[in-house]
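Box 3.1 A note on notation
Throughout this textbook, protein chains are presented in two layers. The first layer is the amino acid sequence; the second is a token string describing backbone geometry. Keep the layers aligned when reading.
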Amino acid sequence: MKTNQLIAILAVFMIIASCNNPKKDNNYAHVDTVVVNYEYPTDSTTINKWVASNDFSAMYKHSWYVWKHLTTPINGGSALTYQTWASPQQILHKLNNPGKNAVKGLEFNKPNQFGHAKLKQTDFDDTNIVEVVAYNPSAEKYAIDNKIFYLSTLKAMQTGEFSQIPEFPHDAITIKPVYKVITQNSLSAEGIYTMAAWHGPEYKDKGYPETEWQSCIHVDTKTSDKSNPNGRLDYDCNSITPENTYYLNDFIHFPIDKSLADSYNKSNKIKDATKQAKEGDIALLVGMHVGTKEIKRWVWQTFWWSPTPLTPSIPSSDDIASAKNGVGLVGAASHYAMDIAYSMVIPAQPYVGGKNEGELVIGFNPYLESGFGTGVFDTKTSYVYNNGNKIETNLGTMSNCMSCHMSATVNTKISLNSKFSSAPYVGDTYLSYRDSIFQKRLMLDFAWSIQSNIDTLK
């Protein structure tokens, strides 16, 4: 392991410690704790004050309230708020079929970053995770009004050296829910589904995908009236005990329809009928990236299912978990861990002209970015200086949601299939709105979902 990555490991613990105990020394201006407004959306001035004063307690609490909003049932029904939102494909279908009643069903897709990073399919064959990106009604209206998925629209917006699309509205939310599907062939005779469960990062140049976690939990799919609020991991992945056995009630889950089943099989290239998903199979929510346009660079929070939600593993913390208290999460929603990225580095830097210096802000989802190795990221950009030390951040376990999504771009002047079309992936780093990677590209207001859903015929 490289020396810089050893330094990086120490830096991870530094940022977690700083989150748990916000600094009050001469390097960080301290102000009185800001009164927290838990209405959504919270005004940008309030949130930026939290960021400037390192008020992590307020940030944690706010993001848990966002999670509560997403996971609250609609009108007392079974559908959760986030499950009623439209995907980019559905929004594009509405754009292309105005005034018609035709409804396009939801479809599973492989996470876009896997394709963007040109990872080998075999890196994730054991997990077959899928996503359903979605926009809340405000973000959907923005996409339709601006025809934001049309190539012709984006071409007209790309002018000059540094171009940007119009920003999403203040109350917009975009999400990337990630699921595992329990197919019949993945069950034991006793109805047990075994899956990899996160226990914390390892910092390897090749990344740390689920195939190497060697930590599992077991889901009893035949028992419907039990839950395990805080259990243990099975480090053999074949020793089933009451402590490492969980139940469907411990997960946000739902039975999939034919459209989702077909898209699951297609996205995972499953041709063997005995291994294919079928209508009625269960989808388990294992992770979700959430971006809320409450500040210019968006508020970033990511959630993943944890076997020990009261004492979650890095990149979460006990302090983050304890911030759930008083939020009112119930049932399966309380079984998830969280990490946040309200800035790229600490102290937060200005939009233009800042310095790539300070403490790291690590924000990644184990089920999405942990498998990314050094070959995925732009090494020229993925670093932070801390106390004179250059810390390399070109690993998925050293990444930051805000840094990554800021690089969401496209160059409409050349082939969209060209490697030069989008800016490269970056780990945790400070990016200015005038960074060279944005030159001669159109910035997509942090929305990779636009880049991956462009209608080139419109």
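Residues 3-65+137-176+286-321+335-451 form one domain. The two ends are 48 Å apart (CA to CA).
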